[in-house]
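# nightly structure sweep
# worker-07 picked up a monomer target from the shared queue
# config: single-sequence mode, recycle default, output format = structure tokens
# input follows
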Amino acid sequence: MRLTEVTYGSARAIEGYGPGFFRVAGHVLRGPCLITPWDAGPWGGLTDTSAPLSLEGRIDVLFVGTGTHIAHVPQAFREALEGQGIGVEVMASPTAARTYNVLLGEGRRVAAALLPVD
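# output follows
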């Protein structure tokens, strides 16, 4: 079997995570983060819809990582994003990070809003 290294070009991939942080494109971000192919920075958490909504027209799907374990997101959060045409996929943060990277490698229009793991 031949394995091929995944390259992301100039897009920002999630390189790692640990208790309270994410490493994205060589930078460590602490706390909740919003990660896109072109930027990564702090995010206000599940009550902050303004930052993800600013991605309207630039992404198709937002992967929401709810920390160590999968949990429900507030209905208002989901409705706000889906109402603007942004799909919301909820999963634990480690799974969301991996899924983001896989689809980023495929050139898909994705972003990740991640709550840190314990």
